[in-house]
Design a protein that fits this description.
Blueprint (H helix, E strand, L loop, with lengths): L3 H8 L8 H9 L6 E2 L2 E2 L7 H8 L1 H6 L9 E7 L3 E7 L10 E6 L6 H12 L3 E8 L3 E2 L2 E2 L9 E2 H8 L3 E6 H8 L8 E5 L9 E6 L3 E8 L4 E6 L11 H14 L12 H11 L9 H7 L3 H9 L7 H25 L4 E4 L3 H4 L1 H6 L2 H6 L5 H5 L3 E4 L3 H12 L8 E2 L16 E2 L1
Parallel strand pairs: 3-6, 6-10, 11-18, 12-15, 15-16
Antiparallel strand pairs: 1-2, 3-4, 4-5, 7-8, 8-9, 11-16, 12-13, 13-14, 14-17
Helix pairs in contact: 1-2, 7-17, 9-11, 9-12, 10-11, 11-12
Length: 426
């Protein structure tokens, strides 16, 4: 991640590294300093409350953000690997956070510890929060699938953090909300086709786990629907995958798509190839993969580097791409995703060249008599943080009601998402 000083200079390029904007980022350990009309928020030596009460009308004259009387929104994308937090105002909207910071989830005992550290560093007046989490959310309660944290509960979190309210939503539901706010630069096109206005959209997100969701047109907006389809039964598409299924059954019993198509799954693919004698791993790659604190990251970095010479890592990623294509095609058929197929999660951007050139599209389109139906659907890779944007959308649009099940684009209703043909080519 870019350092705070770099981001401060980027936000205000006319100011040198020693400028107070840079120093404020360093002192508060934030990754982003939001700057409006050349004016920062908050100014040096004044916390947010002091700025609101002392500067008053001066803020409006300078065009800077004014803290709303009801306070600001804390939004968070809480995943098995990392947690991203941001602070948002009604005026700036869900795409322009006042501050953001990323944390390693497993390095903290719980979400409340991360939030306290973040709020202490930015010193902004937050009074409510909305978090998307990597796991099912039922009646305001969530157990994160890939973290050993105590289950999260909305009222208990609000009381612990001293906030007026806390909402929890599934991370893939948040992504389905967030894609309605994406800019063209937040996407890469894998398969350019024209989306059907009002057509359903499918979201598949391989990260630490495998998340799935979809959006359906509800007359005036897209309704975001969460899913736990990644935990459905893995279906092999060829003999090697059938052997993989048998190999995993001996170790795990039930074999889900997540066990073969996620950050959890990539080491399984690698180990399967080693055990079945696909190739021998040479040093120093063998030691690096064996001893890495994050084996998935090591396999991806080596496998995506053509200079590494690791046939095992490259083949493991090739299997991952093919399996991802097969399951993305399954979801696309299930919801008839004529509005588009969106690949999110941390792994999709990391293996973007492979998704373009490898077996992904062939397996995606290999659907027998309905192959032509899936081949007519546009496919995108999401490079922006749609989950965090979606959590901000949910928190800002209905601050006092229940968590929204739908996303309404600003202005008049649109029957297609604001991306389509404008997204960047890979």
């Amino acid at each position: 991640m870019t350092s705070s000083p770099d981001l401060a200079r980027e936000a205000s390029p006319s100011h040198p590294p020693g400028d107070w904007r840079t120093r404020w980022c360093q002192a508060n350990e934030v990754d982003t300093l939001f700057v409006v009309d050349g004016g920062p928020f908050p100014p040096p030596a004044l916390d947010a409350w002091a700025y609101d009460s002392v500067a008053g009308g001066t803020m409006k004259e300078r065009g800077a953000q004014r803290v709303p009387p009801g306070g600001l929104l804390l939004a968070g994308d809480v995943g098995g690997t990392k947690t991203v937090l941001g602070i948002y105002s009604e005026d700036a909207g869900p795409r322009r956070p006042l501050a953001t910071r990323t944390y390693r989830s497993a390095a903290h005992p719980g979400l409340d510890a991360i939030v306290r550290e973040f709020l202490a560093s930015v010193r902004l007046p937050v009074d409510r929060a909305c978090f998307d989490v990597a796991g099912p959310v039922t009646a305001g309660r969530a157990k994160l699938t890939n973290l050993p944290w105590t289950p999260l509960q909305e009222p208990a979190l609000a009381e612990t953090l001293g906030l007026r309210s806390v909402r929890l939503l599934n991370d893939l539901g948040a992504i389905a909300l967030g894609i309605t706010e994406l800019a063209p630069g937040d996407l890469r096109v894998l398969h350019r086709r024209r989306p059907t206005p009002g057509g359903s959209v499918a979201v598949v997100a391989p990260g630490t786990g495998l998340g799935e969701a979809f959006g359906v047109w509800a007359g005036d907006r897209y309704a975001a629907c969460s899913s736990e389809g990644g935990h459905g039964d893995f279906a092999p598409g060829n003999q090697r995958e059938a052997d993989l299924l048998a190999w995993l059954r001996r170790r795990h019993g039930h074999v889900s798509w997540e066990l073969v198509c996620s950050g959890v799954g990539i080491p399984n693919l690698y180990d399967f190839l080693v055990d079945t004698g696909f190739a021998a791993e040479a040093e120093p790659v063998a030691s690096r993969v064996a001893t890495a604190p994050d084996r998935t990251r090591a396999i991806v970095e080596v496998g995506m580097d053509p200079r590494s010479g690791s046939a095992l890592c490259a083949e493991a990623l090739g299997m991952f791409a093919g399996i991802l294509g097969a399951e993305a095609g399954n979801l696309a058929l299930t919801v008839l995703a004529t509005g588009g197929i969106y690949l999110a999660g941390g792994l999709s951007p990391a293996v973007l060249p492979l998704l373009r050139s490898g077996p992904f599209l062939a397996r995606l389109h290999d659907k027998g008599r309905l192959s032509s139906v899936v081949a007519a659907m546009p496919v995108y890779v999401v490079t922006g943080n749609a989950a965090l944007i979606g959590a901000a959308v949910a928190g800002l649009r209905q601050p006092d009601g229940p968590a929204p099940a739908a996303s309404a684009p600003r202005g008049r209703a649109r029957t297609s998402l604001p991306v389509g043909g404008a997204a960047e080519e890979t």
